[in-house]
Amino acid sequence: MKPAEKMQTKPFKEETEEPQFGKSPQQFV
User: Fold this and answer.
1) How buried is 13 (Cβ within 10 angstroms: 0-12 exposed, 13-18 middle, 19+ buried)?
2) Rounded average pLDDT over 3-27
3) What is the pTM of this model?
4) Is 6 helix (H, G, I), strand (E, B) or coil?
5) Residues 6+ apart with CB under 8 A from 3
6) SS3 sequence of 9-28
7) Residue 29: which of 17, 21, 20, 2 has the closest Cα?
8) What Å distances lie between residue 2 and 6, 15, CA to CA?
């Protein structure tokens, strides 16, 4: 899924959950 697509689906969810699972925000920021 593209960065923009992830952001428009669940913007706040990605910000809070991604880092926790080890997926650094850099991949979509």
Assistant:
1) exposed
2) 59
3) 0.15
4) helix
5) 27, 28, 29
6) HCHHHHHHHHHHCCCCHHHC
7) 2
8) 6, 15
Structure tokens at 20: 């926790």
pLDDT at 16 over 60: no
Q: What is the pLDDT of residue 14?
A: 56
Q: How far apart are CA 29 and CA 22, in angstroms?
A: 15
Nearest CA to 29 among 21, 11, 9? 11
**Are 28 and 7 within 8 A, CB to CB?**
yes
